[in-house]
Design a protein that fits this description.
- An 8-stranded mixed β-sheet has the order 4-3-2-1-7-10-13-16, sandwiched between helices.
- The chain is globular and about 70 Å long.
- α2 crosses α3.
- By secondary structure, it is an alpha/beta fold.
- The mean pLDDT is 96.
């Protein structure tokens, strides 16, 4: 029996997307492709409704049967949980990513080696956004903020997932199991810096040596400050930022290594597909089972990650990057 864990984030206004419907479409996609008639179990975690649905498909005597069990044991998310755009930190009873991790670990204990996919259908920033909560502990503290419901790279640290729990999490996955983060990874400053690099007259989409010195006269002050902070340098005049190409590569590599998709890939030991830094996702507008894909305008960004970091793209041609557990 193969297992799938699909998570639907809250479709926070005004950027509402039908994440629960995408989970259902993913189920339909896998069921339609199940020519071998293997038994399939789908757990759908709907953060917005607070509902967990289990859809089980079996094939006795070659005929497909389905059973559905639904439990609403979490508080429904509403606009009242937000102060403007900010999710209130004192909300209790709403589904969090911790429940998702617990479900994966249960598979690792009761049915090890059977998890084919863990998918987050949600908005995204530096990883999936389930409710757009905030980590008030920030990254300087390894413990999770109890009021933070969204996934974080530090979730797999022993302070949050002890070794026995991490082992169970890893044991859940089938050898061909994968992860997906279907949302955006569009941090504007990184997108702008990468775009300015790609349009620099001395930039080449491949083969540019690390020692090549590039001078930028079109950075704004925030971009120069961000780059300088990461490089440990100061640029007195943001209209003259002089760096090597190797420094820029290190700047982007550092952020990749600190991100959620990389953390999930490393700690699950499985390939993880997600948006590459500076790209955003959007809804499919064609097909009988629409999901999401990365906007097709990011070809230059994808070429940068492919040619300078060795990133491959997802096999479904949706323009998500493949985060390999071995990436360093």
């Amino acid at each position: 029996m193969k297992h799938f864990v699909l998570v639907a984030g809250y479709g926070k206004p005004p950027r509402q997307l039908p994440f629960r419907a995408y989970c259902e479409n993913r189920v339909r996609q896998y069921v339609a492709a199940n020519k071998a008639m293997e038994d399939l179990v789908f757990q759908i975690f709907d953060v917005g409704s607070g509902e967990v649905v289990v859809r089980t498909f079996t094939y006795p005597a070659g005929r497909r049967t389905e059973s559905v069990a639904a439990v609403r044991s979490f508080v429904r998310v509403t606009p009242a949980h937000y102060d403007g755009n900010a999710f209130q930190n004192d909300v209790r009873g709403v589904m969090s990513v911790l429940e998702v991790y617990a479900a994966v670990r249960t598979i690792g204990v009761t049915a090890p080696g059977t998890l084919m996919e863990l998918s987050f259908f949600s908005h995204g920033y530096d990883g999936p956004v389930l409710v757009d909560s905030f980590d008030y502990r920030q990254t300087s503290e390894m413990l999770r903020d109890p009021g933070d419901l969204d996934p974080r790279p530090k979730d797999f640290h022993s302070a949050n997932m002890p070794p026995a729990e991490l082992s169970a999490f890893q044991a859940a996955y089938h050898p061909d199991g994968i992860n997906w983060s279907w949302g955006c990874h569009f941090q504007k400053s990184y997108h702008h810096i990468l775009t300015k690099l790609e349009f620099h007259p001395e930039y080449r989409s491949s083969g540019l040596p690390d020692g090549k010195v590039l001078v930028f006269r079109n950075f704004d002050s925030d971009e120069a400050l961000l780059l300088g902070d990461h490089l440990g340098r100061t640029f007195p005049d943001h209209r003259k930022v002089e760096v090597t190409f190797g420094e820029l590569k290190w700047f982007f590599r550092r952020h990749i290594l600190a991100g959620y998709c990389h953390a999930l890939a490393v700690h699950s030991g499985r390939k993880t597909y997600g948006g590459l830094l500076g790209t955003y996702a959007e809804r499919d507008t064609t097909g009988s089972r629409p999901l999401m894909h990365v906007n097709r305008g990011f070809g230059r960004h994808l070429a940068f990650y492919r040619n300078y970091f060795g990133f491959a793209l997802d096999p479904e041609r949706r323009w998500y990057g493949l985060y390999d557990p071995a990436f360093t």
